[in-house]
Amino acid sequence: MRELDQLFERYLDREWRKSPTSERARFLELLATEDDKLWHWFMGHEVPPDAGLHALVERIRALPP
């Protein structure tokens, strides 16, 4: 989905380099997640089962366009 790609690109451009290793690992987990789950998480319809993933999703959602 193009919208998810844009969110991920924004994170990679702005946050990846300064992110701790643990957050980078969480981001890689997001990349391995099915698009339909990601869509529900990023739209706020569902919450990721893992608190760390949830925090990262919220962080990415909060990045300005």
TrEMBL record:
Belongs to the SdhE FAD assembly factor family. It is found in: Cytoplasm. An FAD assembly protein, which accelerates covalent attachment of the cofactor into other proteins. Plays an essential role in the assembly of succinate dehydrogenase (SDH, respiratory complex II), an enzyme complex that is a component of both the tricarboxylic acid cycle and the electron transport chain, and which couples the oxidation of succinate to fumarate with the reduction of ubiquinone (coenzyme Q) to ubiquinol. Required for flavinylation (covalent attachment of FAD) of the flavoprotein subunit SdhA of SDH and other flavinylated proteins as well. This is FAD assembly factor SdhE. GO terms for cellular component: cytoplasm. The keyword Chaperone applies. Keywords: Chaperone, Cytoplasm. GO terms for biological process: succinate metabolic process. Its main location: cytoplasm. It comes from the Bacteria. Coiled coil: none annotated.
